[in-house]
Amino acid sequence: MSGDDDSGGWHLTESDPAVFTQLLKTLGTPFIVDDLHSLEPDALSELQPIHAFIFLFKCLPLAPEEPRGLAGEYDPDFTGFFAHQTANNACATLAVINALGNIPSLKSDSRLADLLNFTTGMDPQTCGMAIVSADWLREAHNDLSPPSTISLDGLGLPNKTEDAYHFVVYLPVLGCVYELDGLKPHPVRHGTFEDSDNGWLRKAREVIENRIATYPPSAIEFSLLAVRDDPLPAMNRQLELLQQSGNDTKAAEMLLKISNETSRREQWAFENSLRRHNHIGLAHAALLALEKAELLQPAIEDARRAMRERVEQRRRNGFTGMDED
């Protein structure tokens, strides 16, 4: 959740698979994160096995309470791992840790294993404080979310309340689908699911879709990510078997899949390198060049005109709170 106070040195994080996958790799896990644009069974089957969903949503503090049947029920006797969020902006990494702490087959580096072992038996608040106090974890979190290098302090600008967004995780634990939200006092149990490979996914889909249905029909301020096994090792093993068996056609198909997945990782690496870079100097040089060519003022007017059109379009669609400047 975003905010200027009580951040404890934790920076805002993008809801992007490249960012979350890099965090999971830094933690030494065999998982990646993929964007989900649909919860239909066919879309989910391509990503199996899925261990958890990370859900980003816009906080609506003035919205009416969710009906009891949609909100699940608190489980104060939850025996799995659960930590509270004790620092602003840490909710993305906290969602990841809350998920990883409840995956029985987890293999990770020694630092994460030591942290999870250290917090065993702690209450959620103390556990959350231990997590945000881990310097190495905060550095991993901040690696792809650098702080802003532009300060607006002292300009006399009016204070505006920014929209707040928050990450939570949905996953199966002991035969039930749970929602782990670091801002809630306890894990939320959303009921049992059928004992099958896709049983928990069907239940989670129902819960998430009901959650989205509590927002206005035109709302799009959501993001859903799936934590799943990294497919590359299995693909490489399958390719080796196909080559050994002399099945050249299937081997060629698998080689194409590996190439596509590798290209995607290279794109993620490029995007992450851009996130680490400070672009202020480039932007400053571009503005100077536009001014020298007497193109800066026309560009400003074009931008203002485009912004007015966007604001008007959002107002026609029922959105409010967006300024033209």
UniProtKB/TrEMBL annotation:
Record bears the keyword Hydrolase: yes
InterPro entries (UniProt xref): Papain-like_cys_pep_sf, Peptidase_C12_UCH, Peptidase_C12_UCH_sf, UCH_C
Catalytic activity: Thiol-dependent hydrolysis of ester, thioester, amide, peptide and isopeptide bonds formed by the C-terminal Gly of ubiquitin (a 76-residue protein attached to proteins as an intracellular targeting signal)
EC nos: 3.4.19.12
Keywords: Hydrolase, Protease, Thiol protease, Ubl conjugation pathway
Keyword Hydrolase: yes
SUPFAM superfamilies named among the record's database cross-references: Cysteine proteinases
GO MF annotation terms: cysteine-type deubiquitinase activity
Pfam families listed in its UniProt record: Peptidase_C12 (PF01088), UCH_C (PF18031)
GO BP terms in the entry: protein deubiquitination; ubiquitin-dependent protein catabolic process
Annotated site (Transition state stabilizer): 85
GO CC terms, sorted: cytoplasm
Ranges for domain UCH catalytic: 9-229
Entry annotation: catalytic residues: 91, 166
Residues at the site labelled Important for enzyme activity: 181
Family: Belongs to the peptidase C12 family.
Record protein name field: Ubiquitin carboxyl-terminal hydrolase
Protein species of origin: Pisolithus tinctorius Marx 270
